[in-house]
Amino acid sequence: MTDMQAAQLIQPGEALRIETLPVPEPQEGEVLIKVAACGLCGTDLHLAVDGDLPVEHTPITLGHEAAGTIAALGTGVTNYTVGDRVAMFPSAFCGTCRFCVIGRESLCDRSKVYGMARNGALADYVTAPAHSLIAIPDEVPFDIAAIITDGVSTPYHALRGRGQLQAGESVAVIGCGGLGTHAVILARLMGAGKIIAIDVQEEARERALSLGANYAYDPTDAGFIKQMRADVGAMGVDLALEFVGRAKTAETAIRLLDKTGRCVLVGVGMERPSLPPTVAFVGREQSVLGSFGMNKADIVDLFALVAAGRLDLTNSVSARYPLSRANDALQHLARKEVSVVRVIVEPGS
Ligand SMILES: [Zn+2]
Ligand SMILES: [Zn+2]
Fold first, then answer.
1. Which of 1, 31, 129, 317 is the most exposed place for a label (fewest CB within 10 A)?
2. What is this structure's pTM?
């Protein structure tokens, strides 16, 4: 075990290069992980296909949604042993800043995101701080553990942590791709009342309905908000989640709210949504919140739900690729086929 393969970004926006690199040494407080599965997401497309996200340095190994087995321990690591099955938090958070100590790890002041600031898990091996790992229960396979760390925990954080969803409340999900699909599954599991799916693509709406949404609407349909109000039997929903990252969809999400409604923005971009007139927004006591990533606790709790047989994510892995075909995996994701929920790379396969 001296050399390994890694999929590296050399130039943002260009295909990854599969390089032979030395296996990294875990530093103090870190472990070396033999990667079993690494999910890809929109962030990877921004880095390797569109080239519109900054990276701290190149070459850099991509991959921030991963699970595997501990292969070696750095000095000072006492709570894990070689052979333990672990998932990685998507960034190497510090564990000591004021956001880390209150369990808001995605907001860490000294965060090093894998694939942007630190070598990631699209490789046979990756190093990670031991405090950023989450032990995987025996019942949870590596591929499911990997997608939970980002693709499932991001909507869970939006629903639970930021949206404060209460049983019986109505929820609208705007953008039913990978994250939105999981939001529908999770809202149902959390006891939501009526669930509304909003997407321009019919196939995405059909999938949301099959997963438990009560109603699905095409937002390009002029009368859809009126129809939604009639269907939910109220002036709007209690919680609206936006996964697109555009001004127009964010404004739609706010328009869908009833009094006391919360709009949680998860999608990101450079556009600026505007608020309704304050006389309406204030008078209805509405909220607009941002939701960024997840807490470590979100991943722990999702693992428990899968291990207990309450959450079935087996249909979420849409395609698998070996590390040598990491670019094919990215291209598959870039085609934005509605049927694709999550694409996985399996080093060592
Ligand atoms: Zn991601
Ligand atoms: Zn921190």
1. 1
2. 0.96
